[in-house]
Amino acid sequence: MRVTASKLRENVYRILDEAIASGIPVEVVRKGTVLKIVPEKRVSKLARLRKRTGFVGDPDDIIAMDWLREWTELK
Q: What is the CATH number of the domain that holds 19?
């Protein structure tokens, strides 16, 4: 989207919200020079997770476990 500086000033919040929602840069023309407003790419939530050790032990022990003896009903 290309707008003049005057149009940007009139609708700054609407134009910025559109750029954020669509991811399309906004080009602002000011005295013959083009400036770009580009939304930063967001990092996915999964990429921000810390790596954790999920299980310590032998995974085969879980398969062989007698779950009926270990399980108790919540009250």
A: 3.40.1620
pTM of the model: 0.53
d(CA 67, CA 11): 62
Distance CA 43, CA 27 (A): 24
Write out pLDDT tens, residues 3-19. 999 999 999 999 999 98
In a domain, 29, yes or no: yes
Name the residue range of residue 17's domain.
1-39
For the chain, the three-class secondary structure string (H helix, E strand, C coil) is: CEEEHHHHHHCHHHHHHHHHHHCCCEEEEECCEEEEECCCCCCCHHHHCCCCCCCCCCHHHHHHCCHHHHCCCCC
Average pLDDT, the chain: 86
Backbone torsions φ then ψ of 34, nearest 5 degrees: -100, 125
